[in-house]
Design a protein that fits this description.
Chain B: Belongs to the CcmC/CycZ/HelC family. Chain B: This is Heme exporter protein C. Chain B: Keywords: Cell inner membrane, Cell membrane, Cytochrome c-type biogenesis, Membrane, Transmembrane, Transmembrane helix, Transport. The complex is a heterodimer of chains A (about 170) and B (about 240). Chain A has a domain at about 40-155: Beta Barrel (OB fold (Dihydrolipoamide Acetyltransferase, E2P)), CATH 2.40.50. In chain A, about 25% of the residues lie in helices and about 25% in strands. Chain A has helices at about 5-30, 30-35, 40-45, 140-145, and strands at about 60-65, 70-75, 80-85, 90-95, 110-120, 120-130. The radius of gyration of chain A is 23 Å and the shape is extended. The termini of chain A are far apart. With about 240 residues, chain B is mainly alpha-helical. Helices cover about 75% and strands about 0% of the residues of chain B. Chain B has helices at about 10-45, 55-85, 85-120, 125-145, 150-165, 170-180, 200-230, 235-245. In chain B, helix 3 runs antiparallel to helix 4 and helix 3 (about 85-120) packs antiparallel against helix 7. Chain B is globular. Classes of the chains: A alpha+beta (about 170), B mainly alpha (about 240). The interface between A and B is large, with 44 and 41 residues.
Chain lengths: ~170, ~240
Amino acid sequence: MQPRRKKRLLSMVLVLGLIAGAIGAMLFALQQNINLFYTPGQLIQGLGEGKIKPDVGQRLRLGGMVVPGSVSRDATSLKVSFDLTDDSGEIATVEFEGILPDLFREGQGIVAQGVLKNATVLAATEVLAKHDEEYMPPEVAEALKGIRHVPPSQLPVQPTATNSYGG
Amino acid sequence: MFKWLDPLAKPETLYHFCGKLLPWLMGSAIFTLLLGNIWGLGFTPTDYQQGDSYRIIHIHVPSAIMSMGAYLAMAIAAFTALVWQIKTAQWAVLAIAPIGAVYTAIALLTGMAWGKPMWGTWWVWDARLTSQLILLFLYFGVMALHGAFSDRQTGAKVASLLAVVGVINLPIIHFSVEWWNTLHQGATITKFAKPSIDPSMLWPLLISLLAFKLLLAALACYRLRTAILENEQHRPWVKQRVSQK
């Protein structure tokens, strides 16, 4: 290789290495800020090495699995509350008034944005459903997970909407 | 090691090489695109949770993966152009950039169209979506820098430098869903473990992925040939070709 080419190659590799290092260090330092949401475990036990807990009244997002059986709806309004959990086993409560996304189910991943009411309760203004990376036909889901999927068109017509969250 | 590549640095040889590849690439791209998308969009079973909405995966995932693949190809060309100062590699950078930008835009738009019914929002500033948006801006930056200098060579050099440095964004996009909490789900097929998708849905997806790859190669060949003709228009071999027609 010509000396000039070698020099250019070396300087390119050096520049690339330096920038990669700088961006890596930056992302590492910003780690807590880049996370889209707190998990219930991070909310209750604290985040990172400093165990930093968010303050009451802080705007934040909380993400986790909806605890089966925890969804309770108000009979006369759109108010709904449910519990979220994660691997740590900690449980945080979300209170929300509005229409939940179609994918909202017990056992489903959810990201809620709102204001922290107290250490474990979030008053949410927006609830988003987080989908997992699994894709399968209904028959496979039924065999594998025991999930019975009924298309909306074949749902029995009933005045109560309570059983639409059975899945 | 790469001695066999040397003749291809010559514009005339590369022009004819791309010309030979082009019909094969374009033909197979159109065939696989029709097969993969018609199969995927029309004949795969519905998803157990998302119903028919998931079918957008057959466009979203291939365009997203190949938007990163196109960037890597562009960055390799830019690196070659900077270190070995090969002008055909320089032209390849600008040939690939708009194709990659369109792929990135398709990935972002189809993702938004899917996000609205599934997540409940068009857009959220999570790490995956933001880094993919940065990829689009990197493509725009490369294209804009190319034309931003009155001296074409300086512009080309600066654009190549940006293309090479921007490679750092690729691992960030790929691993964003693992490193941070994101709304975007984790990898379904681009991981070492078994794909988390049923085989009946996986096959059309893989065919679509191949189709987007072939289409990228075909379009890049086509654009590179155009760039060669444009840049070599005063050379005898081009004049000879023009006078023959």
